[in-house]
Amino acid sequence: MDKVEVRIITEQTDLDAAFHIREVVFVDEQNTPLEEEFDERDDEAEHILVLYEGKPVGTGRLRMVEGVAKLERICVLATHRKYGLGKVIVETLEHIGLDKGATSAKLHGQTQAEAFYIKLGYQTASDVFMEDGIPHVLMTKNL
């Protein structure tokens, strides 16, 4: 995996790259309204950027919510979904959560990605609900 680099975002250029990836995946590909994708929580979240062969291709963010690591905005460009980068993003965010004192994690997983999160140790903890016009479920994991 020496082709893969994960950065905790501290520079505006990396944040711009992460936001671009989110726009491509969520707004362009999945038709999430632009005003729904970017919110005030971006300012309080810890963001990561995944690069593959030096190119920004994936991102995610983490917020601590009542002591729980809440993983959000996990996405990888369609061209790079075959390299296991989603797992890298989830595991990195979990480690950041652990460093911040979390003992559990949660996320709103799209139902089409539910099996992916189950493979990573998450359990479905809700009925299906709609978020940004896409069916989701609440998923939880002890860290």
The H-level CATH homologous superfamily of the domain at 4-103, spelled out, is: Gcn5-related N-acetyltransferase (GNAT)
Strand-pairing-aware structural class: alpha+beta
CATH architecture of the domain at 4-103: 3-Layer(aba) Sandwich
Q: Sketch the topology as an H/E string, one letter per element.
A: EHHHEEEHEHEEE
Number of beta-strand segments: 8
Low-confidence stretches: none
What is the rounded distance between the termini? 24 Å
Shape: globular
| Helical proportion, percent range | 25-40%
Q: Classify the fold: give the CATH topology of the domain at 4-103.
A: Aminopeptidase
Beta-strand residue fraction = 35-45%
Main beta-sheet strand count, sense and barrel state? 8 strands, mixed
Level-1 CATH class name of the domain at 4-103? Alpha Beta
- Integer-rounded radius of gyration: 14 Å
The total of helices stands at: 5
Mean pLDDT: 96
